[in-house]
Amino acid sequence: MLWNLATKWIVAIKTSIYIYVSPVITVILSVLILHEKITVISIIGTILILIGLVVSQKS
Predict the structure, then answer these.
(1) pTM of the predicted model, to two decimals?
(2) Do the Cβ atoms of 21 and 53 come closer than 8 Å?
(3) Rounded distance between C-alpha atoms, residue 18 and residue 20, angstroms
(4) Per-residue pLDDT of the chain (59 residues; tens, 9 = 90+)
(5) End-to-end CA distance of the chain
């Protein structure tokens, strides 16, 4: 239901960008708020997500 509402307010492409950035924000907030240690896998995942976003925006 929230996905449909968000898609109505902003275009579908921008909505999908927010969905892809969500894990990156989660990692950052977990480090800042919960004081969790950042792992190599979360760094690699964050980098891959950001590269994917850059590549998808250039197309």
Answers:
(1) 0.69
(2) yes
(3) 5
(4) 776 777 777 776 677 777 888 899 999 999 999 999 999 999 999 999 999 988 887 86
(5) 29
